[in-house]
């Protein structure tokens, strides 16, 4: 969520990953090099043989979808990651999930297995990219297959984090958790898609992760989907057991995020939130509070990604698109956002949560309140109020702690029950 660089050579500090041999540095360097190659001026904006998901037959819906169980693998294909000769094994899986309105849905996940050994059974990390989109051209599966479009930027920014997970010997599954309708900030739908993506990866024999420990990771919009999956796990997917979850930059208070950026350099994010909630919940009455300009924006943004709106609308105000004053505090907007708010039930999984005290996109107050809500329900968690400045600064500065927490859980170490907040 939000534009900006979110990476660095942070894994050299406090690295508790397994010791691996066989050219780990060479292949992981090749993966990081993919970012540089794709950013070279003159690279094609898109490749004809990598259609966007809306035009790709692989994403099609089978006739018997309703009869298939959640997490069922409906099809698979091997892919060259980023369409580059990177020595990892990667596949895309089409799988069945259920949307937030209890309708059967086809989604796609990308499974990546590194060429390095893993001590014991190989862990599986469910990695949630902050998709932040209204269209499938922003979906991580399109980026990971080699789609070259401005909409893939958020996936590209996460390359170093994905690389580090693979370097530690973990397999990774990246789900298009917003689904084929690109439902940004759809809490139940996102969580279900994450859980069923894990089910699909574990049911896919070539990945070799059927019996290994499972963890999850997400930052910003990815943290939203990650924690919704953790909250829904016991009731929706009791067969999925998490060893641990790391999540940072958590958008726990959606209206507060919109209010923070409204009128600023990332004002397009506030517009993205309003558009997404109005589109996701047509029964809410939110769309009826938009003026002519707002309805025009709603229609013309059907294929927009978050960075598109951020670039287009710096300094904009949501009220310029509304028929009512202070739309972001209006009861209709707040009630619509509350339908997707994190908080209950608390995850029954050990959590490592972190958030920057000076986050310039997602106010820390919502994070603090969410931590208190989880702790009051008996959660086991470590919460870090990070001194690293800005949204992107905390993403970089606290990533090693999140990775090491997962390494400890995958190794079988149990955290002390209760809440540790610092």
Model description:
This protein starts with 23 loop residues before the first helix and ends with a strand. Helix 12 (364-376) links the parallel strand 8 (351-356) and strand 9 (381-386). The chain has two domains: 11-250 and 390-413, Alpha/Beta hydrolase fold, catalytic domain (Rossmann fold), CATH 3.40.50; 254-338, 434 Repressor (Amino-terminal Domain) (Orthogonal Bundle). Helix 1 runs antiparallel to helix 4 (159-167), helix 5 packs across helix 6 and helix 8 packs across helix 10 (306-312). The chain has 422 residues and is of the alpha/beta class. Helix content is 34%, strand content 15%. Residues 2-15, 17-22 and 39-46 have low confidence and may be disordered. The longest helix has 16 residues, at 187-202.
Architecture blueprint of SSEs:
Blueprint: H1 24-38, E1 73-78, E2 89-98, E3 104-113, E4 124-128, H2 140-145, H3 153-157, H4 159-167, E5 171-175, H5 187-202, E6 214-219, H6 221-236, E7 242-248, H7 254-261, H8 267-280, H9 292-300, H10 306-312, H11 331-338, E8 351-356, H12 364-376, E9 381-386, H13 391-397, H14 399-410, E10 419-421
Parallel strand pairs: 4-5, 4-6, 6-7, 7-8, 8-9, 9-10
Antiparallel strand pairs: 1-2, 2-3, 3-5
Helix pairs in contact: 1-4, 5-6, 7-8, 8-10
């Amino acid at each position: 969520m939000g534009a900006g660089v979110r990476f660095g050579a942070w894994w050299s500090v406090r690295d508790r990953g397994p010791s691996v041999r066989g050219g780990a540095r060479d292949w992981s360097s090749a993966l990081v090099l993919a970012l540089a190659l794709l950013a070279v001026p003159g690279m094609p904006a898109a490749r004809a043989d990598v259609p966007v998901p809306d035009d790709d037959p692989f994403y099609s819906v089978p006739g018997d979808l309703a009869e298939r169980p959640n997490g069922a693998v409906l099809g698979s294909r091997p892919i060259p990651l980023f369409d580059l000769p990177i020595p990892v094994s990667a596949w895309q899986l089409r799988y069945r999930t259920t949307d937030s309105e209890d309708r059967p849905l086809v989604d796609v996940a990308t499974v990546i297995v590194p060429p390095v050994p893993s001590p014991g059974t190989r862990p599986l990390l469910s990695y949630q990219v902050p998709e932040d989109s209204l269209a499938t051209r922003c979906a991580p599966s399109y980026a990971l297959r080699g789609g070259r479009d401005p909409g893939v930027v958020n996936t590209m920014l996460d390359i170093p984090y994905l690389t580090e997970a693979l370097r530690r010997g973990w397999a990774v599954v990246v789900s298009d958790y917003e689904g084929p309708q690109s439902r940004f900030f759809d809490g139940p739908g996102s969580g279900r898609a994450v859980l069923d993506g894990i089910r699909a990866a574990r049911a896919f024999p070539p990945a070799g992760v059927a019996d290994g420990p499972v963890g999850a990771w997400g930052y910003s919009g990815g943290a939203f989907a990650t924690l919704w999956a953790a909250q829904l796990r016991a009731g929706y997917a009791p067969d999925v057991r998490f060893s641990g979850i790391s999540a940072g930059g958590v958008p726990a208070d959606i209206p507060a995020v919109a209010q923070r950026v409204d009128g600023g350099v990332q004002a397009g994010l506030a517009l993205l939130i309003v558009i997404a909630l109005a589109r996701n919940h047509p029964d809410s009455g939110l769309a009826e509070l938009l003026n002519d300009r707002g309805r025009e924006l709603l229609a013309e943004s059907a294929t927009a990604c978050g960075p598109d709106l951020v670039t287009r609308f710096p300094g904009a105000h949501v009220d310029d698109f509304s028929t009512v004053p202070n739309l972001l505090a209006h009861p209709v907007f707040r009630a619509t956002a509350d339908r997707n708010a994190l908080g209950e039930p608390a995850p029954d999984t050990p959590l490592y949560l972190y958030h920057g005290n000076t986050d310039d996109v997602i106010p820390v107050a919502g994070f603090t309140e969410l931590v208190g809500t989880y702790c009051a329900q008996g959660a086991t968690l470590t919460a870090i109020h990070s001194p690293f400045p800005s949204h992107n600064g905390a993403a970089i500065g606290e990533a090693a702690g999140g990775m090491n927490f997962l390494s400890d859980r995958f190794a079988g170490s149990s955290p002390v029950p209760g809440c540790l907040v610092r």
